[in-house]
Amino acid sequence: MKIGKLIFALAFLMLFADASMAAKWKAKHVVLIGLDGWGAYSVNKADMPNVKKLMADGSYTLKKRSVLPSSSAVNWASMYMGAGPELHGYTEWGSQTPELPSRVLDEDGIFPTVFGLLRRSDPKAEIGCICEWAGIRYVCDTLALNYDKHVTEKPQSPATTKYAVEYIKQSRPNLVNIVFDEPDHTGHSAGHDTPEYYAKLKELDGYIGQIVEAVKEAGMLNETIFIVTADHGGIKKGHGGKTMEEMETAFIISGKGIKKGYEFQESMMQFDCASTIAYIFGLKQPQVWIGRPMIQVFK
């Protein structure tokens, strides 16, 4: 009899803990979509109806700044790690390990990421990452993931979308990071701010629409926050420098509890993305993080 009561009490405590955890969350699901090399200068000119619907239904800035250098690994790391390269130590386009010693390491042996924070806060959370560029896997803490997919099929973007749609419908992730390696390649080959670049953005917008539709079909829409952003922009056929075309990227956030049609004016840096996601999930920031949540976008 005592054993039965003990089991009942433990079950009650577990249910209470789950309910308490969920009560801290502003949404049950976050879908983070990254477009590599998507400069904010292009947003108003681009034919991207799905992205612009997210903007109209949510909040956004076209003034989020990259960290220097304005290139990939250092900025994806900052986006996930809530700090700049001076602290996390990833300083170059293709950093796979920190060139500077990370100021602190977490239990997974990496500078604290938002993925690791969520995993330790809720061990049962479903967390996934789907990416086209293998470099993402060096900075997102794969040990914290339930689902880790590096897409190698060609063409990549349709395959990435397929995997994302399947994962969302089957697993209903709490946090999923979906990173396309475009329009960066088009920017390098045809050039930024070219007809080819805008054609690629229109194509990518269609994939984003499919991901939004998958969230609807999974029955998650009312409990989801979408974030669409980028690591850096570009100028001519390159990036990495200090022009605004390279430095400024869009940050679009839309969904449950987000203000509609709100272009916020407060300054935002790359590392504020991690802090904003942490705020959604009620996570306590590590002392070493310097990011700030964009609390002004919440109702």
UniProtKB/TrEMBL annotation:
Keyword GTP-binding carried by entry: no
Keyword Cytoplasm included in the entry's annotation: no
GO molecular function, one term: hydrolase activity
Stretch forming the signal peptide: 1-22
Keywords: Signal
CDD domains per the UniProt record, alphabetical: ALP_like
InterPro entries named in the record: Alkaline_phosphatase_core_sf (IPR017850), Phosphodiest/P_Trfase (IPR002591)
PANTHER family: BIS(5'-ADENOSYL)-TRIPHOSPHATASE, ECTONUCLEOTIDE PYROPHOSPHATASE/PHOSPHODIESTERASE
Protein name: Alkaline phosphatase
Organism expressing this protein natively: Parabacteroides acidifaciens
